[in-house]
Structure formats: structure tokens, C-alpha cells
Amino acid sequence: MTLKRRELLDDKKVLIGIHSTNGNSAPNWTPEKYRELILKLKSNENFKIVVTDIDIPKEIRRNQRGLLSESNMSLRDWFIYFASFDLLISSSTGPMHVTAALKVKTLSLFCPLTGMLT
Predict the structure, then answer these.
(1) 117 domain residue, yes or no
(2) Is residue 114 included in any domain, yes or no?
């Protein structure tokens, strides 16, 4: 187990990253919906939840402890950080592609609408 993973787990068994924002290139859940998901996941005593957004939306930050946002990391450090997860939950975003490339399980939210060709 890597040092970063041990530091993040805090005696939990499963490390879940949640990335709630995207570049607005695709529809996404609202911050309130992500907050609801985080609260449900946090109710499981085996799950450690970390939020990977550089700027965590205020709706998610509100009354939350243990959320993590590491905005001053190098790209290499971000890769090490994402590689420590058991699962990443996100919409169609860069962290989804990074974690998938690192063979980390992803749960990715996609809009059911057909994409538009230009």
C-alpha cells in the first residue's frame, strides 16, 4: 500500500474519489446531487470519500469534514493521488480518463442525449 493511500484512508477500507465538476462540455449532476451521494456513501463506515475538485462547490463543502482538494499538486502528484483510489465517481472529465488509464475503477455519469456533430 502506498504512503499516499494510507494517509488518505484514515483506517477505512475503500477509498472513493468524487470529482463533481467538469469543463461544461457535457451535462453534469448539480452540486446538490453530488452532495447527496457523498452523504449516502459516507454513511458506510468502510468508505473514505475524497473530493478531487480544485474548487469544491460550496453546496458540497457545507458542513462536510474530511473532504480533500489539493490544488497545488504537480501533474505527476495528481496521477499518484488518483492511482490510490479504489473508485472514482465523476462525469465525463479529465480525472475520469486519468483514473481509467491507471486501471482504477470508474463510475462515470453520462447524459443519455445523443451528442451533436458540427
Answers:
(1) no
(2) no
Residues 4/84, Cβ–Cβ less than 8 Å: yes
- Kindly report the length of the chain: 118
Q: How far apart are CA 35 and CA 31, in angstroms?
A: 6
Distance CA 84, CA 87 (A): 9
CATH number of the domain to which 87 belongs? 3.40.50.2000
The reported pTM is: 0.83
Question: Do residues 77 and 84 make contact, with C-beta atoms less than 8 angstroms apart?
Answer: no
Q: Which domain range does residue 10 map to?
A: 3-109
Task: Extract the C-alpha cell encoding 49.
Answer: 470519500
pLDDT tens figures, 29-54: 899 999 999 999 999 999 999 898 88
| H or E stretch covering 37 | helix 31-42
* Residue 18 main-chain phi, psi, to 5 deg: -130, 125
